[in-house]
From TrEMBL:
It is a multi-pass membrane protein. The chain crosses the membrane at residues 6-26, 33-53, 73-99, 120-143, 155-175. Pathway: Phospholipid metabolism; phosphatidylglycerol biosynthesis; phosphatidylglycerol from CDP-diacylglycerol: step 1/2. Pfam families: CDP-OH_P_transf (PF01066). One of its GO terms (molecular function) is CDP-diacylglycerol-glycerol-3-phosphate 3-phosphatidyltransferase activity. The keyword Lipid metabolism applies. It is found in: Membrane. The gene is pgsA. Keywords: Lipid biosynthesis, Lipid metabolism, Membrane, Phospholipid biosynthesis, Phospholipid metabolism, Transferase, Transmembrane, Transmembrane helix. Its EC number is 2.7.8.5. Belongs to the CDP-alcohol phosphatidyltransferase class-I family. This is CDP-diacylglycerol--glycerol-3-phosphate 3-phosphatidyltransferase. The lineage of its organism: Bacteria, Pseudomonadati, Pseudomonadota, Gammaproteobacteria, Lysobacterales. It is an enzyme of class 2 (transferase).
Amino acid sequence: MKLTVPTMLTLLRIVLIPVLVLVFYLEFKWTNFAAAFIFAFASVTDWLDGWIARRYNQFSAFGAFLDPVADKLMVAVALVITVQSHHTIWMALWAAVIIGREIAVSALREWMAELGERAVVKVAAIGKFKTIVQMVALVFLLYKEPLFGLPVFAIGEWLLAVAAILTLWSGAAYLRAAWPTLKKEEDRS
């Protein structure tokens, strides 16, 4: 296994998951800031590891496997702790849509890879935009407190709703891209 800088950043993201949970549940005035900071930092390392891998040609099979796993784990954990602390039907629905889509798209990518067509379901621009909106929403939701008179949590709720809608849109785009291959395989059966 080749341990590159991008892979080390991905491993750091995984290590930060239990730290995020612990900090989130501590009962100090600073924990909302710390939880939001940890998640924001992890989000930046997600971008940074990809940039470093491309810029310095530091790719590895292990890193390519681990990076999306780390991202999905961090987002799922942040969504779960947010829903647990603010359990409304809307928050649960948005979280279920986002987590459900991640599972479905991961399964679709795996299936397409088995068919030798992984490139058909590559990351699209809408997926990247969805990720940015989702990350900002989660930072706001983890921070919770008003900032400079802005209702940070309410903004986070609305951004999470937008992220959930973009999640459905991007999931449909992946399915639409894969559909011809899936249909062809079904016809062969």
